[in-house]
Write a structure and sequence with these properties.
about 325 residues, mainly alpha, about 0% strand, 15 helices
């Protein structure tokens, strides 16, 4: 009953926010802006999204190896593409993580190693996104003149940054009870692994670069969407506005971020002095690109060995 109520609440939140956002959009005007060139830009956005997934796979493999959950490149890519499908269908922006966890655990890595690899991967991605937003604050402040917009940006970003850095500091603590008390044992273990990965001479630089690349590619996807409808928005505007929106969209309070993303993008465009309806237009098409990629992930899931082997013996992972 609790899960049903939670899922219902997320559906209602997505629906309500989408309704409010769509009131600012003239869909007939939006569709009238589509041309043959638009299809090229949407196709490019889909291709960049798959590249983004691949870059995320490279980071996940580095982290998974440190967690005792090594994965072959092809298998990891398949799991991430399948995860993109469940991100669109489960009542959470991180539903795909739960499916990836299940797949890795079933593959023979075990529930602990699988959970650690997903949790640390998500945490490092969040830290990288927060740092990227902080690094761009001088330019964001030049773009966003509205005091409320600046305050909201600072609040959201520094909250995420404080949480991420606090997580790393937590892993650096040597208190014995952190490793033995049930309430802190697993979180501390994940924090230790995150520190080990980030500050490793062999893995650290690659993981940092890959983490930043994942978020930059999200900006490129949004830029392709902007180009597809010839919206009067510059690349620098997209680079400043999309990462904070992505940060807020990561909150698991809606279905695949729908509604939350549109409302936040509308506010972000308004704070930057841009047309709020263009923010909703860009957000809708941005979500549509990820929905298409998720649909392809659904086909991969239907045709995958993991789907066919449900209830059978573990498929195995490389040693």
């Amino acid at each position: 009953m609790r899960r049903i109520l939670l899922s219902t609440a997320k559906i209602l939140i997505s629906g309500a926010l989408l309704y409010l956002a769509l009131r600012k959009v003239d869909l007939s005007e939006l569709f009238s802006r589509f041309t043959v060139t638009s299809l090229f830009w949407i196709g490019l956005a889909i291709a960049v999204t798959f590249l983004q997934i691949f870059v995320g796979v490279l980071r996940w493999r580095e982290i998974g190896a440190a967690c005792g959950a090594p994965l072959e490149l092809g298998r990891a890519m398949r799991y991430n593409v399948i995860g993109s499908f469940f991100n669109q269908t489960l009542p959470s922006a991180i539903g795909g993580d739960a499916v990836r966890l299940w797949l890795v655990a079933r593959a023979g890595a075990g529930w602990r190693a699988a959970t650690y690899s997903i949790f640390v991967d998500r945490a490092i991605g969040l830290i990288a996104l927060a740092i990227m937003i902080v690094a761009s604050l001088p330019w964001s402040y030049a773009l966003i003149a509205d005091p409320q917009g600046r305050s909201a940006l600072l609040l959201v970003d520094f909250a995420a940054l404080a949480g991420g850095l606090g997580f790393l500091v937590f892993g650096a603590l040597k208190w014995h009870w952190l490793k033995s008390w049930w309430a802190t044992h697993h979180v501390h273990a994940c924090a230790v692994i995150a520190n080990r990965v980030i500050f490793s001479r062999s893995r650290g630089p690659a993981v940092v670069i890959l983490s930043l690349a994942v978020h930059v590619l999200a900006v490129v996807v949004a830029w392709c969407v902007v180009q597809s409808i010839a919206a009067p928005v510059g690349f620098s505007d997209v680079f400043m506005l999309v990462p904070p929106v992505m940060l807020i969209t990561m909150m698991p309070i809606s279905i695949a971020g729908w509604g939350v993303r549109e409302a936040t993008m509308s506010l972000a465009f308004g704070f930057a002095g841009l047309a709020t309806n263009e923010g909703v237009n860009v957000s809708l098409l941005f979500g549509a690109v990820y929905f298409i990629v998720g649909a392809i992930g659904g086909l991969v899931w239907i045709l995958s060995a993991e789907k066919a082997a449900q209830g059978s013996a573990p498929l195995g992972v490389p040693e």
